[in-house]
Amino acid sequence: MMTGMMIEGKWTTNWNARDQKGVYNSIPTTFRNYVSADGKSGFKAEPSRYHLYVSLACPWAHRTLIMRELKGLNQVISVSNADLILGEMGWRFSQTPESTAEKVIHLQYLKEIYLKADPKYTGRVTVPVLWDKLTQTIVNNESREIMRMLDVEFASLATRNIDLYPYHLQQKIDKTINAIYQPINAGVYHAGFATSQVAYNEAVIELFEHLERWDKILSQQRYLCGEQLTEADVCLFATLYRFDSVYYSLFKCNLQRILDYQNLWNYLKELYQIPEFKVTCHLQHLKRSYYMSMTEINPNQFVPMGPIIHFDEPHDRDRDYNV
Ligand SMILES: N[C@@H](CCC(=O)N[C@@H](CS)C(=O)NCC(=O)O)C(=O)O
After folding, report:
1. 21-73 tens-digit pLDDT
2. Which of 70, 92, 170, 305 is the most exposed place for a label (fewest CB within 10 A)?
3. Which residues catalyse the reaction (predicted)?
4. pLDDT tens digits, residue range 94-106?
């Protein structure tokens, strides 16, 4: 989703995220501080100190919401949900049945929150954002790092005893998160926002090669890094969950549906059926958000009625993988 960006503290809608070949490039995230358990980073993990700004449509923000649920951090970290539509002025927070007014610093737009953290900010204004109420600044706006902080640094405040970054799997988890990032998590956006046939073709071919590969791996093991649910699964889930409803049609990632992959589809159902994943899933909201916000690729803003997806159907993932 793209609207404007901030240059030296000024909002502009006059920019293009594509290069001359029509390839969509993501701009690196800029707030990269870290909350730590001991506070040595300058940001100590403490209850009620931090706030998350998210959109329920956004797959990157979705990672952080799932982690917050899995760790049982709901009372520790508060959340604001952005309005359904990402408009010309970027994400906005107002009180509607589907979004929450911004009650922490009492600002309407996410860009105002970025400016409060850095009046000369240059970069995209994206969710998720982890805000520190104590020092009144953005700690971090990179989903992968926020997810990791909630998992590791907030562990002593967690009310659920689950570790998604276990010591013996750490290298594998990092490698896997990296391996799925470019071709799959970002790959759907590269396809959807490409402005040349060549760039679109390349993104789609790469995307489906990687989906195929992970489908095979998941025929031999239950989760991406083996027999244990990890952060890497959270990262893949957020993309797979949106795939058949949004990326297949709106972004033209349509060589196959996730439903057509025996293992990816059953894996997706299994994760969806975990209560802490399910409460973060809002398919109707996210469909409307994508189809109505992305006027560049869907100018009439129609929202398709289908497909009807039975995420609650039984899955086959509790089978024996050693045979
Ligand atoms: N690198 C960021 C990317 C986040 C991102 O692209 N968020 C999108 C929503 S899905 C956004 O806020 N876009 C607003 C914009 O580009 O103006 C992360 O993983 O946290």
Report:
1. 878 777 777 899 999 999 999 999 999 999 999 999 999 999 999 999 999 99
2. 305
3. 58 (nucleophile), 189 (proton donor/acceptor)
4. 999 889 888 888 8
Pairwise CA distance, residues 161 & 4, whole Å: 41
| Other CB atoms within 10 Å distance of the CB of residue 106 | 9
Residues with CB under 6 A from ligand 1: 1-3, 29, 58, 60, 86, 90, 124-128, 141-143
Report d(CA 183, CA 181) in Å as an integer: 6
* Structure-token match 């990157």, residue found: 60
Buried b (16+ CB within 10 A) or exposed e, 181-207: eebbbbbbbbbbbbeeeebbebbbebb
Q: How confident is the model at residue 1 (pLDDT cuts 50, 70, 90)?
A: low
Instruction: Give me the numbers of helices (H) and strands (E) for the chain, helices first please.
Output: 10, 7
Q: Which atom of ligand 1 is nearest to the CA of 128?
A: 20
CATH code for the structural domain at 5-157: 3.40.30.10
Mean pLDDT computed over every residue of the chain: 95
CATH 1.20.1050.10 corresponds to the domain 167-275: yes
Q: Which atom of ligand 1 is nearest to the CA of 143?
A: 20
What are the structural domain ranges in the chain? Answer: 5-157, 167-275
Quote the ipTM score: 0.99
* Cα(249)–Cα(305) distance, integer angstroms: 12
